[in-house]
Amino acid sequence: MKTIKLLSVVLLSLFLFTACDDSTDAFESEQSLFEVDNMASKSRIEKSLPLKATFTVWRAETPGSQSCDVGFSETMMLKGNGKMTHLGQLQELFMRFCSMPTPEVIFPVNYSFIETGKFVAANGDELHCIIESGQIWPYTGDNPKYQLYFNDDILFIGGTGRFKGASGWAKTNAYVHPGTTDNDGEDPFYTDFFINEGELIIIPGSASE
User: Domain-by-domain residue ranges, the chain?
Assistant: First the structure.
């Protein structure tokens, strides 16, 4: 009888040891999966970069060529060139917005993008942007070229290539020369941007996904 009891105790101990070992294996397996997920998350850590830019835009179509929402009366499409940190010399840049001019302009003049804007880098990668709302004010500086000024938030909303999934912001710091002639004339409309405050957030490696 004692032998049977002793054998039972040995079998029970062996069972408990095996169950504990299986539990340990399951824990280690779960921990390993967590580590893999954690490594994947780390590989997608966002990288924050300071951003500066200098560029000029001109009218690319006659103002009012497209319709605007109620409350806005004039469209403007602008294209230009210049340079931007992390993009280099810009191949192209594009902006289309609606503003709210009146026969007797009352400041501020409100405006907003009606299409996603884009900055095209030297290698063709695109950084997309939007201005959700902005205000144009009279220029009060001492440069006789400028008559209007605005300094609104540009929001970056993705793009292509290395700017896929990008985000961030910048201040326009823009100065408007209304001009007296069309683009082919001697005194065309243009706007100079001197962006010295901004942040570009990218996900390294996202272009290859």
Answer: 1-43, 47-208
- Residue in the structure block whose two tokens are 């095209």: 120
Backbone φ, ψ for residue 189 (5° rounding): -65, 140
Length of the chain: 209
Class of CATH domain 47-208: mainly beta
By CB neighbour count within 10 A (0-12 exposed, 13-18 middle, 19+ buried), where does 186 fall?
A: exposed
Determine the Cα–Cα distance for residues 174 and 135; give it in Å rounded to an integer.
11
Q: Judge whether 59 and 77 are in contact, CB under 8 Å.
A: yes
* Reported pTM: 0.75
Per the DSSP assignment, residues forming a β-bridge with 176 are 148, 191
Q: How many other C-beta atoms lie within 10 A of the C-beta of residue 188?
A: 15
Residue 201 to residue 158: CA distance in whole angstroms? 10
pLDDT in tens, 17-46: 444 454 445 434 445 544 544 544 444 688
Position 45 scores a pLDDT of: 82
